[in-house]
Design brief:
Helix content: over 70%
Oligomer: single chain
Order of helices and strands: HHHHHHHEEHHHHHHHHHHHHHHHHHH
Strand order of the largest sheet: 1-2
Length: 615
């Protein structure tokens, strides 16, 4: 390394002392490891590509975490799970699950300078976790890019006057203009009307079909062009590696907040917005006793912070060794929560206005998922009496930027896993291959039955596998590798002691909560309301992702040179090359670990468990 950070310099005396205290019984093995490092080290170390500036890491993590989950998922989840009362379990879960896991993934990524697959050099037996997370990320990127293409389509349409979704088309029956303010009264009490914004989405943009029993249809050509534009943007921003995406993060992370605050002011000044905000913050306390509310809080936390998917590990792996990731983890998790709350205020302000002008209940107006963004927002914008085109352009541009930032993070995770395994594979070739595969896969979601497929893929290929893999991730990092060693790594890297709170969360509390949520979700399982073949496909997808852990574990054991039980035990230990990226720091770290191994050898099992968490 050409430049040493101050934290690294301060640690030299500690590492030197550790080297001097290594007993002769252990020093022989330790010297062998150090000699192997000397042989492998070139005179000028070739280190991993780094962020251009430390703030680029912070901004890139913000662009990754703050996205679709904040704008549409949090407001609807809050509405369904007790309104203001939902904020309480969400903040509790964020405090004892979200933040500890976010910090944990940052620690292992920065310490090792490895991606989400290669980081399992700490425990080769569990490498399949990282492979499963990479497959899950590719599963996500297909429909995220498809949703992004919808945002691009609406952004382009926002420049048309009048807004194309504000008025009914001749072939639509039982339609009412979204620009109309008030209620329609007819003599037929059973007759209902559909706003033009909803019909524009279902018939013009998506051409949705009532079911997918006879197939999903073909991709819409206009959305296919938008999808090409999305993947072209992602490819251009990643073609030169992490430095080019780091420069883009200034815009991708900051500019959406400019638009977000403009929309916040507008939403709060709409007629009827107050009713929506009161509905949002009024708690339904009885909901706190329902397990499903706590499950929703955990799911929202994972979805919003993007933990358990390998992306945080990958982003942290491009940091310099002594970057203050504790500060960054607290900033990002806090900002993500604030963004979710701001989005909730905007959504309920808009929905309150929509309920007021149509004289309906807020619960009747609110919709979930893509329909919230592409039906409710356009319907409300069409009713605005002051430059509706401007607010349509602002909203869908913001949504496009948020989606672009998240997609770049997802592709970066996949790209890093590939290049860690095949370093000779040129970056631009890997990016291009991912873009072509992602575009081809994404075409499925812009068909007439695409949204139904999206629900199947999201549950079986993302939500359920993520819960499974994150349980195995916590067991690997905190029990097999050990909380005590994680804390020692943090002290070696940042020169700070890890507090009791993080030790308890990593050792017991976080894992117990995640396991309980997994059992709850499994016990509540019901097949999705799609043809049985799609449910079967979903289970095969889930097994394909999760069984990567079994396949790679078997492969690792068979590759060990030892025999019998020793193969398994050796697979649970870090590889000889595990540690900091710099060979110089790795030597000091190896000496420090040798002293720790001798110290642990003199204790019984109960003392070892206690020391693993609290010492």
């Amino acid at each position: 390394m050409s430049e040493m950070d101050s934290g690294t310099v301060q640690e030299v005396s500690i590492r030197t002392t550790a080297q001097q205290n290594v007993p002769d019984a252990l020093k022989t093995n330790q010297e062998k490891n150090v000699e192997s490092l000397d042989d492998a080290a070139p005179e000028n170390e070739e280190l991993r590509e780094k962020w251009g500036k430390k703030i680029e890491f912070l901004l890139s993590c913000i662009a990754l975490s703050v996205g679709f989950g904040n704008v549409w998922r949090f407001p609807y989840t809050a509405l369904q799970n007790g309104g203001g009362a939902f904020v309480i379990p969400y903040l509790i879960v964020l405090f004892v699950v979200g933040r500890p896991l976010y910090y944990l993934e940052m620690v292992v990524g920065q310490f090792s300078s490895r991606g989400c697959v290669k980081v399992y050099d700490m425990c080769p037996l569990m490498r399949g976790i990282g492979v499963g997370q990479t497959i899950t990320m590719f599963t996500i990127v297909g429909y995220y890019a498809a949703i992004l293409s919808l945002a691009v389509r609406y952004f382009v349409d926002s420049f048309r006057s009048p807004l194309p979704w504000s008025e009914c088309q001749r072939e639509w029956t039982n339609c009412v203009d979204s620009s109309f303010i008030g209620q329609i009264h007819t003599g037929d009490a059973n007759r209902s009307f559909v706003p033009s914004a909803e019909l524009y989405f279902t018939k013009t943009v998506m051409n949705l079909i009532p079911n997918i029993e006879n197939g999903i249809g073909i991709p819409d050509w206009k959305l296919a062009l938008c999808l090409i534009a999305c993947w072209t943007a992602v490819t251009c921003l990643l073609i030169k590696g992490i430095r080019s995406s780091g420069k883009a993060s200034y815009f991708l992370a900051i500019f959406p907040y400019v638009i977000l605050f403009i929309l916040l002011v507008r939403a709060c000044t709409l007629t009827g917005a107050g009713e929506g905000l009161i509905y949002f913050i009024t708690p339904q306390w009885e909901k706190l006793l329902e397990p499903s509310v706590w499950y929703a809080a955990v799911s929202q936390c994972f979805f919003s912070l993007t933990i358990g998917l390998g992306a945080v590990i990958v982003f942290a792996s491009f940091n310099s060794f002594s970057t203050n990731i504790y500060r960054d983890a607290m900033i990002i998790s806090g900002l993500d929560t604030v963004t979710s709350l701001i989005s909730g205020v905007i959504v309920f302000g808009v929905v309150g206005n929509l309920a007021h002008v149509t004289r309906r209940e807020i619960s009747e107006v609110m919709k979930a998922g893509p329909q919230l963004v592409f039906v409710i927002y356009p319907d409300a914008i069409a009713k605005m009496d002051f430059v509706p085109n401007l607010f349509a352009v602002l909203f869908f541009f913001m949504f496009t930027i948020l989606g672009l930032g998240t997609n770049i993070g997802i592709v970066t995770t996949i790209l890093t896993s590939i290049r860690d395994r095949f370093p000779q594979f040129q970056n631009w070739k890997a990016v291009l291959a991912i873009a072509i595969a992602g575009f081809s896969y994404g075409l499925v979601f812009i068909t007439s039955g695409g949204l139904s497929i999206l629900d199947v893929i999201d549950f079986y290929g993302v939500t359920f596998p993520t819960l499974t893999l994150i349980i195995l991730e916590v067991i690997t990092f905190c029990w097999i590798y050990g909380v005590d060693r994680l804390c020692m790594d943090i002290k070696f890297m940042l020169c700070i002691e890890t507090g009791l709170f993080f030790r308890i969360c990593w050792g017991f509390l976080t894992l117990i909560i995640i396991v309980a949520i997994f059992i709850l979700e499994a016990s509540r399982y019901k097949p999705m309301e799609v043809p049985i073949g799609y449910n079967v496909f979903g289970w095969f997808l889930y097994l394909f992702i999760v069984l990567q852990t079994v396949g790679w574990a078997c492969y690792t054991i068979l590759k060990q040179p030892d025999c019998g039980k020793r193969r398994l035990l050796q697979s649970l230990k870090p590889t000889n090359g595990w540690g900091p990226e710099s060979v110089t720091l790795k030597k000091d770290y190896a000496s420090l670990m040798a002293n720790k191994e001798l110290d642990n050898a003199s204790h019984n099992i109960l003392v070892k468990i206690f020391r693993r968490i609290f010492k």
